[in-house]
Every structure is written in C-alpha cells, then in structure tokens.
Specification:
With 231 residues, the protein is α+β, with helices and mostly antiparallel strands. It is built from seven helices and twelve strands. α4 packs across α7 and α5 packs across α6.
C-alpha cells in the first residue's frame, strides 16, 4: 500500500516533542505550514538505504525501525523510534539506512531544506534542531557501548528500560513489543538463540514476564535497572 501524505495542523504536533520546545503559537503555525502528515501501514518501508536524503520525519504515533544492510546482505538494526523521535536530520545527500514501520504509524514529513531554512529564521527552532541531533548522537553512542561492554541479558534489560522511558504510555506492567525476537537480536548484536535464552533467564529469575510475544511485564524494576546500567 502506498504511503498516504496529507496536510497537518498544529493540534497534531506534539507540544512535548523536542522540535517544538519553547515555540509560540505563531512559530508553531509556521512549522505546520511546511509539514505533511504521512500515514503508514504496519511493516511498510518509509524509504530505503541510499534514497535521497531530502526529507525529515517526526514520529507522531506508532513504532518504526532503522536498519542498515551490508553489501553481503547482513542486517544491523540501528534503532527503534517512538513518538517524538526524528529521522533524517543529516546534511548527507543520501540516507545510509532504511526505515520501516513495525506497526501502523503516523509521521510528520518536512522538506529538509525548508525546515533548515525556517530554523535560520527562528532561533528557538534552530536550537531545538541542534539538540535533537545531539540526542541522536547520544543514543548511537549508547548502542556502541552496549554492544561492546554488556552481557546478553544486560543488553536486553537496557532495551527494556529504554522502551519504558521512551514509549508513550509504557508502564512496567505493560510494555508493547512491536518488534520480533530477530529484530531485537539484530539490534543488540546477538543471535536469536541467545536472545531467547536471555528472555528465559530473566523470566526464571523473576525479573520479567511475557504474557504474549508482543507484551512485556517488568516484575522487578529495580533489578532490571541495575542490570541495564551494569558497567
């Protein structure tokens, strides 16, 4: 199914999203005037690796996945993005990754040059764009760290806490898992067998429960946080 693109109004824009921090109503209207709403079905590609990097996206609803495939066909998941997260804040000419929806999703779409040009006129918007770029870098560094330093079950706990903190409406008793176990494995740099064993270990130790493959409960939040932050 083709992605649907529509105009957008300010009541759809997230006031708690980093892009709109400290902006007044007039500035919000200016952003809305260059934004378009894109509706996606589950498991649909927003764009593919090496596509022209001429747009910026803000996730409004749903979950999307950022992936990169090597010349040999090996896949690495670079991140899972939730409402408030951004895609495409780069000065590169082409995207070095693909983006795929894991559920039905709604995004704001901006022409990159229009957004950057508007940010030059609105100091608060420019500051917000710079902060978002810094946050993206910080998450990338977090992933590099967990891939290099943490044990398998600690990596899984790190992901759980990350989702708890970043997914709107998530509580320890109910965290939705729109990604597959293979997606998790490719994100954490593990095999799917190791991911399955790590889930089993955490369940056996009473830290988590999985009422279904798409639902997670954190039963011992303190211990899960300790494992997530283990050095």
């Amino acid at each position: 199914m083709t992605n649907q693109v529509r105009t957008i109004s300010t009541n759809i824009l997230h006031n708690d999203c980093a892009l709109f921090h400290a902006l007044n109503n007039d500035e919000m209207e200016k952003i809305a005037s260059i934004a378009r709403r894109k509706d996606m079905e589950s498991h649909q590609y927003l764009f593919h690796q090496h596509s022209p990097a001429n747009r910026v996206y803000n996730v409004i609803d749903g979950t999307v996945m950022v992936e990169r495939t090597s010349s040999s066909g090996r896949r690495q998941i670079l991140g899972f993005l939730f409402p408030g997260d951004f895609i495409g804040l780069t000065h590169s000419n082409y995207f070095e990754y693909s983006v795929k929806s894991l559920s039905k999703a709604q995004l704001c779409e901006f022409q990159r040059e229009q957004l950057f040009a508007l940010s030059e006129k609105l100091p608060n918007l420019k500051s917000n764009v710079e902060q978002i770029s810094a946050n993206v870098l910080a998450r990338a560094l977090d992933q590099i760290y967990i891939l290099g330093q943490k044990k398998a079950h600690e990596r899984l706990c790190f992901l759980f806490i990350q989702m708890l903190e970043r997914m709107p409406g998530a509580i320890p008793q109910q965290i939705n898992l729109p990604m597959t176990r293979q997606d998790i494995a490719d994100y954490l740099g593990l095999t799917i067998e190791t991911v399955s064993r790590s889930f089993a270990k955490l369940k056996q130790e009473g830290l988590i429960a999985t009422p279904s493959p798409q639902r997670l409960q954190i039963l011992d939040l303190e211990q899960t946080e300790l494992l997530a932050s283990a050095e």
